[in-house]
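#struct-help
A.M.: can someone run this one for me? Single chain, 131 residues.
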Amino acid sequence: MTYSIVSAVGSGSVVGFMLGLLGGGGSILATSLLLYVVGVGEPHVAIGTGALAVSVNAFANFGIHAVKGHVWWRCAIVFSLLGAIGALLGSTLGKSMDGDKLLFLFGIVMVVVGGLMLRPKKSVSTVPRPI
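D.P.: on it. C-alpha cells below:
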C-alpha cells in the first residue's frame, strides 16, 4: 500500500472513532488530517472530502443511538433541517474565499470552540422541552 492510502485509512479510522466516542469534532479532525497527514493540497477539497466522510461516519453513529432510543427526534429534525440550510450557505461563502484565508478562519473557530469547552458546564434539565 502507498503512504496516501495508509494515511487515509488511518486518518479515517481516527475520525470515525472520535465521532463515535464523542459525537462531534469530526470535521475539525477530518479537515486537518486530510490536509496535513493524507496530503490533500487544496483546502476546499479537504473540506468537501471531510464533509462527506464525516456525514457517513455520523450516520453510522446515529444508527446505533437511534436503535438504543437516544435520539430526541423532534429536536434532531429541526436541528438537521436548519443545519442543512446553514451548510448550504456556508459552503457557498467558503467556495468564494481563498483557501489560506479559509484555513485561518477555521483555526480561529477551533480556538474559540476549544475555549468555550473549557468553561464550566451549567446544569441542564434532562426533561425534554418543546422545540
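A.M.: thanks! DSSP finds five helices and no strands in the chain.
D.P.: also worth noting: The helical segments are 3-22, 26-38, 43-67, 73-95, 99-118.
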